[in-house]
Amino acid sequence: MTTELTLNNGVTLPSLGLGVFQSSPEDTANAVETALNVGYRHIDTAAAYGNEREVGEGLRRSGLDRSEVFIETKVWVTDYGYDETLHAFEKATRKLGVDRLDLLILHQPIPSRFDATIAAYKALETLYADGRVRAIGVSNFTPAHLDRLLEATTVVPAVNQVELHPYFAQPDVQRADAEHGILTQAWSPIGGITFYPGWGDERRSVMDDQTIASIAEGHGKSPAQVMLRWHIQEGRSAIPKSTNPVRIAENVDVFDFELSDDEIARIDALDTGVRSGPDPDVFRPALFDRSISED
Q: Considering 40, 49, 80, 167, which one is annotated as catalytic?
């Protein structure tokens, strides 16, 4: 049902995963169980989403062995710092009900407090060296953030999870990731962001794009399926979010067709260079001060 991607340390992960950003706790367990039942083997969550416990519940409900599912989560910025991030790992694994994480990443850079970002990443390096996580990475890092991190740390991130869809393809980030052997992972892979007030108020929905609609019609697929296929053929990991059982099943049904080089080029040409989500260089005091509960 899915293809595997190999990280820079030899660990493999399914190219397509289920994202649970803004999935309510009451919906998350059902969504995870549904996804695992229809063939997903990769779940992405985060401490800041407030639904790690329900991801673990969905995993247990599925009846699958823990080793069959790739679980990644993220450390929130209020838990940055060496000791704080080690404790964040304990909180995450306790909520998920697992002893080991497949991938643990930093949720955001903090450009104004980058020393805390580096200290947090060094804690990830310790967790990786101790075998408590199989791979470590970052999220929302620009090439400049990556350069600063790599100058001060030892382990090259395995993954950089960023906003990436046909209207915002971030070629500079993808290029920097590739140069360092970092896998680019797309959040909002089908451009579904509608929930960041103050960012991209004039945003257009990629789902309504006529070029993508035309390509989808030619393959008998949906626009979302075409975009996910685009990510897969370009070698990225993608984590579409849904709690709708029909869409969850649709989003994983993308391995029975192939886009032509011309179709991929047409999708590539849609890039506007305009974010729909927040700029990682913009400090957000209220959000960045959010506390992550112990339970």
A: 49
